[in-house]
Amino acid sequence: MGYKSVFEDGGIFKEIDNSDEKSLYMNVKIDTSINQTLVKNERNSTNGFYYLYDGTFLGNYGDSKEVVVCSKKVNKEDKKTKKKWQEYLMPVRLTIENEELIHFAASIYGESSIGFGVVIENEVYAFASTIGNFKRDKYPNLTYRQALEKNGVYAVGSTNYTNFKNEKDRNSKPNMKLAIQAVIKELKGGEFDYSYGAYYWDGIDIKTGKWAEGLKFSSDDHDIFGIKDNKKEGKEFWKDKRKKDTKYLRRKWEYAYITTIAYSGENSKKKNEHFPYFKGDNQNRNRFGTTFMKDHPDFKKIIPNQTQTDDE
Asked: What's phi and psi for 292, nearest 5 deg?
């Protein structure tokens, strides 16, 4: 399955599947451990950095650095006393502090096709899903900041990452709000996995990334740059007590990775710096996108010791 969007005149076209959006409210765990009400002329009873589910920042209150998300902020008034206050509806306290959430969102903003003038919402969501999968399944004890680093995400220092971090009013920047929303979707849980089980990704530099190590496209739609499968055979042997290779295979593979989904779009006003991708390439000059992937089953399959040699 692949999602493609075309940008011809600098405008933004978004392709969105809303079939799972109803889960936004159905799968929410309400935080009943804290009073989420702000009372006029009294000390704030809220505590943390507050956002709407769509990434809109509402403000921070109290001493907590943790993030709380909610469906809506409403104004209330007592008809008798005329006292006014604000309430946050369906609040969820996330297991992350605001500084780490912003780093996570800035990394997504820096890695996505947004930097090339191409905005694909599902691609942005997929980045957050991928890091979530990587952390949960492979390194559950890491923080999200550590998981990003372990995954090889090096957006820090890029122009887009820096612009995101330095922006004082992200609420006025729809694409920045989108990156924050993606992180919120992942952290809140119960959401659709837009990466389809991926642990890694490669962007327009895919030929120097996972593809070079051996990549199988599980669907033609995933091969957004038309570079075809890259078979890269490898093998690993069991070690003896001296940590030398024995004659027994531990694993053997043709591909290290296999794709799960890909998203791409075009910006007619910007050239892809990695174009051309192959001889006679006339299709990728203005194409940008991301390919998501996981470990190939053959690469993960371990052969029991002393059961198979390389000659068999």
From this structure: -105, 145
What are the tokens at 91? 């609040």
Per the confidence metrics, is the pTM higher than 0.90? no
For residue 202, give every residue at least 6 positions away whose Cβ sits within 8 Å of its Cβ, in sequence order, or none.
Answer: 209, 210, 211, 290, 291, 293
Rounded distance, CA 4 to CA 275, Å? Answer: 18
> Cβ distance 235 to 252 under 8 Å?
yes
Give, for all 312 residues of the chain, the pLDDT tens digit: 444 433 333 333 333 333 443 443 333 344 443 444 444 444 446 788 999 999 999 998 888 899 999 998 888 888 888 888 778 888 888 989 999 999 999 999 999 999 899 999 999 999 999 999 999 999 999 999 999 999 999 888 889 999 999 999 999 999 999 999 999 999 998 779 999 999 999 999 999 999 999 999 999 999 999 999 999 999 999 999 999 999 999 999 999 999 999 999 999 999 999 999 999 999 999 999 999 999 999 999 999 998 888 876
- Contact in structure between 225 and 287 (CB atoms under 8 Å): yes
DSSP structure class, residue 174? H
CB of 199 closer than 8 Å to CB of 148:
no
As a whole number of angstroms, the longest Cα–Cα distance in the chain is 88
Sign of CA dihedral 277, 282, 287, 291: negative
Tokens representing residue 280 in the block: 């006679």
Q: Strand, coil or helix: what is 167? A: coil
Q: Where do the DSSP E strands lie in the chain?
A: 2-7, 37-39, 48-52, 57-61, 66-70, 72-77, 84-89, 92-97, 200-202, 215-216, 234-239, 245-253, 257-267, 287-295
